[in-house]
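Friendly challenge for the regulars: who can give me the structure tokens for this chain first? No prize, just bragging rights.
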Amino acid sequence: MNKDVRNWPFKKIFNSINIAAIIILLYSVLISAIDDTKADNQTPLPVTNLKNNSFADNYINWTWIDPNNIDPKFLEVMVYIDWLYKGDVSGGVQYYNATGLDPNTSHYIYTITYDRRNNKTSRLMTGDIERTAQTTSIIPTIPTPMIADSTQINFEINWSGYKWEVIDYFATPGPCKYSNSSDNVWIDGQGNLHLQITYRNGTWYCSEIDSKSPMGFGTYTWTVINNLYNWDLNVDGGAFYFLGPNDATGNWNELDAEISRWGDSSVTNQHIQYTVWNGTASSSNYLPITPGGFNYANTKYKMVWHSNGQVDFEARDSLGNLISSWSYPGPYLTKTGGPFIFDIWLLNGKPPSNGLEQELIISNFTYTPSFESCRCGSSQVTKN
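First reply, four minutes later:
Bragging rights claimed.
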């Protein structure tokens, strides 16, 4: 009998078994992949315990503890050194070695956590400043992974018809230490919001509040009550819309209306700066030098964000006279759902040059969503 004929039934059975095994394997892989990519609706917490582990004259090695609310295999920690994006560190690694630095120089690191699974990025940042050595003396070591500790504690206030989170952490802008103390953030009997830079126990503390409601296209208005014309040159304050990096590349979606002299002692007038970070690698801004002849108490600001990405800014004095205005024509800035933020902070974390505590007083914040925002589920705004 032909040999192939004798073996045919066994070969057929063997091939059938192989095909079934392959099907089962592919099914298992598919189910696992689907399970791994399920959205968990959790935004990753920031890293904690960020600190210098070792250093020399040309490098600084930082370590941290990953957040404990995200599976490490989906976690990325975006690293910025001296404001420049350097890359992502995978979950579980928990360190970054900055090399190629000059001797005896200070360098700033900040990190932002990112969940690859559902494209969620933490608004919170963690930062630290360290200095390289004058001469090479310490050999870098690979850190041992650590267990996550407790997270930061913030609290909420009700103001101008909305709920706001009062921030308490070390972060940008600045970098500064932001405090949720009632010495830094409080509301007076007339309903005005007070944000202050205070000095306590050898530390300068700044202030920030973030809206709990996501916001988007529409018209924003607010009034700055106190006269900021003679603000200290190291102080910045104002309002902005913020929606973290556009993606894992670390590019921002942000609208700013700020008041500052930007640390320049030769500038006697305050700058009113309008800035748009449009989710790409660059930004556009307009920096008018405020002329004299206006009453700077009770300055009224308005920002109109159109669905095509255009943004219109203006500031008027208490009599309605136009102080400054600027229009950003677009495109790209169409990612809604972030908070609106008010803050007062110190440039590069430097104390006020006059050594005095500073204050920003705001009233009458309003947000009127446009039609596009009203129909967008991610941009629904809930007032108190």
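Confidence is low (pLDDT under 50) at residues 33-39, 136-153, 374-382. Residues 155-379 form a domain with the Jelly Rolls fold (CATH 2.60.120.200). Your move, everyone else.
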